Amino acid sequence: MGPLQSQVLLPERIAGLLGLSGTAGQIVGGLLGAFIIANLLLVQTAVAGPWAKRKITAAFTDRIAVNRVGPFGLFVIVADAVRLLSKELVIPDGVDRPAYDLGPLLVPFSALLGFAVIPMGNGIHLADPETGLVFAFAASSIASLGLVMMGYASNNKYSLLGGLRAIASNIAYEIPLIITAASVIIFTGSLQMSEIVAQQAEPLLTLGGVAIPQWFAFVNPFAFALFVVANLAEVGRNPFDVPEAPTEIVAGYQTEYSSVYFVLIYLGEFIHIFLGGALAATLFLGGPAGPVLPGFIWFTIKIWAFYLFTQWARSAVPRIRVDQFLDVGWKGMLVLSFANLVLTAVIVGVIA
Amino acid sequence: MSLEEPTPDDGVVEALPTGGDEIADLLGDLVVGREEHMNAPGFVIRPDDVQETLRRLRDEAGFDHLSCVTAEEREDRYESIYHLTSFDDRQREASVVVPTPKDDPASQTAEPVFRTADWHEREAYDLIGIDYEGHPDLRRILLPDTWQGHPLSQNYDKDRPQIVTLKEWENPLADDHREEEGDTMYVNIGPHHPATHGVLHVKTVLDGEQVVDVDPDIGYLHRCEEQMCQSKTYRHQIMPYPDRWDYASSGLLNEWAYARAAEDLNDIDVPEYAQVIRTLGAELCRIASHMLAVGTFALDVYGDFTAIFMYAMRDREKVQNVLEELTGQRMMFNYFRLGGVVWDLPEPREDFFEMIRDFLDDLPEALEEYHDLITSNEILQSRTIDTGVLPPEVAKSYGATGPVARGSGIDYDLRRDDPYGYYDELEWDVVTEDGCDNFSRLLVRLREVEESAKIIEQCVDLLEDWPEDERTIQSNVPRTLRPDDDTEIYRGVEAAKGELGIYIRADGTEKPGRFKIRSPCFSNLQTLPEMSNGEYIPDMVASLGSLDIVLGEVDR
User: Fold this and answer.
1) Which among A87, B94, B273, B507 has most CB atoms closer than 10 A?
2) Domain annotation covers residue A77
3) In terms of domains, do B127 and B255 share one?
4) Which residues form a coiled coil (chain A) (predicted)?
């Protein structure tokens, strides 16, 4: 297994390469690093949104999907970008500006902000504060605010219903999500992302000469399952598609958004799925760790695996009703996540 | 089992009056005149005796199914005809004829006796102009509220400008708050909404996430089908229209409705060979239609991009290919003719039979897949079981038929109860489920696909062995059909969505004097408020999907 985590963070390394030091180095390195990471994600989202999503759903539903423009239809990404951005931006009467305009901006940027603390392997890691995990959750939660703004400011009843549903789902599922993450913190004793990843590199057991690392998904699979389910609700995919629910409330909070705002919201959704995958990977799957291939490739594989999972759920699982959705959140997930936390604490306390 | 008549409970049914005289005795003084319709005895009553007459017929003579209400304007009077029949014995029929004078076309409403009369009378008021006294909500139903005149009345001036536009009459941008401090919210679901399966507008009042009241607003797809049929000749010109009522692949079923009514009216025989082909084609259409229903229902419950929808479309496509081979068309088949079908099976026949057999061989596996994906899915079960409940009594009162009625445990299927075509020679079962909920209706459709497959298989066997010199596809029908003046007939067939009935009054010319379509979706859609009031929005959407309406047929 190669070095998991270079101790040098991305901004420092850029500053070093540019020969800058001190405050100027920090600023330039930080900006350039953020630029690189944001672009890495935007490229992945561009592939995921207009192309991979279609191909994956098509595979699940016995279709072919885009195959006309470019190899495997890949250039449809360009065509779609042009198409979407050249559409008319329709702003309905009576919308509440600037909330109407800020909402779609908050969604993608909150998710991007979360990626600042995610170790993506091969030294691609923007910042590593001691409160890393909390920061990631806090940043991704800002999106809820954006959804509420969109729902409330759109002057549309479907948007309002969607916005309300979005808040309800965020409150109901964010608590189990974070409580479950806290059960990992009991193992690590640190909120620092690099520390969480480093601890998972320790061997759990050795089978026939192959060391199995102590990824927390192996140590506590139950917590991993809980986390993935709560994450599914966070990113709003079936069976927790309730805030958007196209056949019920048209498109929920994004009903009144077109053109570039529509793109921003979609972008945000996909980056959120990737952030969900990144958090799951960092907390439970050893971050960028993996045999043979470089860390960054492993990291990408892991977040795409989560993306694939969300699309699979979307194609195959029915949406639950809004009251059942909240029941599952408050009566099921919350109880289970607390049980998991207490049990983990007891077991760790007894062993340690 | 299907071949037997429903066995009457020892003598109870026999005690019910069936003959015209017996019914007339029961009604006594209420009857002021008698008519003879080709399908049923007609009883003329006074305009203010409607409720009393219908109630007596329902409670004492077992006529519990108000199949249709036909209104028309005659030379000297207006007329409302209530076509009554029974869910237990479809072949018992009675027509209640209510003439009203030209200068004051007002008669008592039947709504308190049969809930289904609500919409049927609104339609009669809208198109003909008869006033139903005591009707709870006598608004226009198909045309805009501002429409001037009644288009099917005789003095309707089609050149009269429709000056009052809806925009002037009702400001679409006006505040729609009912009151300042209200707890409810009014939402327009449709006419453009992902879940309305067409241009349906459901006026919905919500209390939080729960539906307080829904009011389906229809008519967006009204294309004057009845009037168009009235202006065409019986022989060839009307047949293309039925394809356009329920266009979601039940074309042949619709054509059969017209064929049956017109053939009985003109006393035309259909050769047995053609009957088998008709049965085969009709059941193929039923499978295609049910596949679409199951797929779109899954869309409503799952959300977009669901696998089951594409699977259903894939299997429907196979049926469509068979139908295309048979009729040359994929949607607007126009394959039936009065007295038979337009042409024989495609050559080479072996290939055609093999195509059908291939489809039938794959079908059980496909259905297994559906059951894996939907009916045995726990989330879907939790979504659909005990939601959209429609008790059998309510369903009967609303005149619900087809899978909607059978999902409420009503054992009613015209193919068995009022046999036509080749159905009574074949081995198959009527499917019922008594859950009365969305899940039951879904299950009924999936199981009916199996039954249809059985019928098709038997038809293929029959057609394969049919002697070559007996393959008559059409009987000898005169070039011009001119049924006698004043003959009236009401005939139904079991379409994919339920009882599709046609009423024709001949006026001695080669065109119908009155052509009335009893659309199953129209009656079924009426049950929506009954199923969804008090439920959550998602359940309302699921209930709407489970009704499987096609707006082309609702609005005609």
Assistant:
1) B94
2) no
3) no
4) none
Q: Quick one: B507 and B369 in the same domain?
A: yes
Domain of residue B506, CATH code = 1.10.645.10
Band the pLDDT of A258: cuts 50, 70, 90.
Answer: confident
What's B77's domain CATH number?
3.30.460.80
pLDDT in tens, A298-321: 889 999 999 999 888 888 888 888
A247–B300: do the CB atoms touch at under 8 Å? yes
- C-alpha A144/C-alpha A162 separation (Å) is 12
Q: Give the minimum alpha-carbon distance from A70 to chain B in angstroms, rounded to a whole number.
A: 24
Residues from chain B contacting residue A319 (CB–CB below 8 Å) = 301-303, 379, 383, 538
- How confident is the model at residue B504, as a pLDDT? 92
Query: pLDDT tens for residues A47-68?
Result: 888 888 888 888 888 888 888 8
Give the whole-angstrom CA distance, residue B404 versus residue B76: 40
In total, how many domains does chain B have? 2
- Lowest-pLDDT choice from A332-346, B31-45, B264-278: B31-45
- Of B102, B133, B164, the residue that ends a domain is B133
Strand, coil or helix: A322: helix
The closest CB to that of B195, out of A57, A63, A247, belongs to A247
Rounded to an integer, what distance in angstroms lies between the CA atom of residue B324 and that of residue B329? 5
Q: Hey, is the C-beta of A319 within 8 angstroms of any chain B C-beta?
A: yes
**Whole-number Å distance between alpha carbons of B483 and B556:** 25
Q: Which of A62, A238, A249 sits opposite B302 (nearest CB)?
A: A238
Cross-chain Cβ contact A246/B314 below 8 Å: no
Percent of residues, chain A, with pLDDT higher than 70:
98
Q: Is A190 exposed, middle or buried (0-12, 13-18, 19+ CB in 10 A)?
A: middle
Exposure on the CB side of residue B470, measured as CA atoms within 13 A: 11
Domain that holds residue B458: 248-515
Residues in chain A within 8 Å Cβ distance of B304 = 246-247
**ipTM value greater than 0.85:** no
| pLDDT tens-digit series, residues A29-43 | 888 888 888 888 888
pLDDT of amino acid B360: 92
Distance from CA of B220 to the nearest CA of A (A): 20
- How far apart are the C-alpha atoms of A125 and A4, rounded to whole Å? 12
Residue whose structure tokens are 């630029």: A35
Is the pLDDT assigned to residue B480 strictly greater than 60? yes
